[in-house]
Amino acid sequence: MQRPLKWLLMLNKRLYKKSSFIIIMLFIPLCVFALGIAAKQQSGFVSIVLAKEDSADPISTELVNSFLSERSLIRFTLADSPAEAVTEVKNGDSDAAWIFPADMEAEIDKYASIGSNKNSFIKVIEREENVFLRLTREKLSASLFGYSAKVRYIDFARTNIPDIDLTDAELIDYFDNVSVSEELFTIGSIGDFDTEGQSTNYLAAPIRGILAILIMLCGMAATIFYMQDEKSGTFALVKSKNRIYVSAACVMIAVMNIAAVTLFALVISGVATAFLNELVCLLLYALCCTAFCLLLMQIFRNLRLFAATIPLFVIATGVFCPVFFDLRKTAVVGHLFPPTYYINATYSNSYKLYMLLYLTALIILLAIIQKITAKKRI
């Protein structure tokens, strides 16, 4: 028992003499730190400047403050005047301007009572028409609904129930105090973990996927180290049939080291779920990455050829795995790579089972290729 442990300790010690391994290890906290800083900055796919014709209008002020306090795909800024907002759009500093009129309450009353598009009261000025800006207008409409719904409700009640003996204040009080338990939509994450109340900035969201790619990259680098050692005769005394276990140990130790750093990075970044869940997912992922790298080593047995494929696999995982976007069309291809299972397994117990099945499939393929290559040697 002491001899295998001594081997493992020596293999682990050798890793820290590799500059490339140290660089990958240091890159993980640097990556998390950089994304954390970026997530705190103002950011967005669409930039919208807000302006009020009357700076003292309470409804306009409430709406503007609610938009400015959000951290989303839309970046909201505030202009001192409508003219300044229009200038920002003309100069290309903002994609659109939303200008709120003076006396919003009167404008909402007028719009809700008549209900015609000709009575629109929010000025929207855009540089060009595109899908993103159309979606932002839906957000604006949703924000105004809460104000116009009450006016519309009172108008409907007065029109359709002429004998109603209630004041507007009493109708509004009834509107505010009636609770509807049914929800039109229930939104949540896939899996069994409660994410209610959590809010993750979209720049910080890919951290887990990026770290998953780095772990896989580390496994590939460790595989290259082993192939170099085998070529130089470091494991010449080990029997050919046992070298697969040595290669597995070399790759596994490297991946485990990076997985430990990754766990720490996830915790300090605030992205981590329950600690036990993270630990289980990383252990399963480490095994999957080890088996995946060993399988690639058996397929691309030439050291230079294997090294040349690494950038291709890194790009493929970034494109096909749900690191930045979860595209249904590429889901089949994405499931060929370990990061897809790890990213989903964190929030889904079903994917933990899929990871085990994926690991089993990799081991079976590895055993088959091992037998085929062994027969060829004979």
Strand content: 5-15%
In sequence order, what are the helices and strands, one letter per element? HHEHEHEHEHHHHHHHHH
Overall SS class = mainly alpha
How many strand elements? 4
Task: Compute the average pLDDT.
Answer: 80
Number of helices: 14
Spatial order of the strands in the main sheet?
2-1-3-4
What is the share of helical residues?
A: 55-70%
- Tell me the Rg in angstroms: 29 Å
Largest sheet: 4 strands, mixed
Q: What does the oligomeric state look like here? A: single chain
Low-confidence parts, pLDDT < 50 over ≥5 residues?
189-204
What is the overall shape? elongated
Determine the N-to-C terminus distance: 32 Å
Notable traits:
mainly alpha; 378 residues; four-stranded mixed β-sheet; 6% strand
Please write out the topology:
Blueprint: H1 2-15, H2 19-40, E1 46-52, H3 58-68, E2 74-78, H4 82-91, E3 96-100, H5 104-114, E4 123-126, H6 131-160, H7 168-177, H8 207-232, H9 243-269, H10 275-299, H11 303-320, H12 331-334, H13 338-345, H14 349-377
Parallel strand pairs: 1-2, 1-3
Antiparallel strand pairs: 3-4
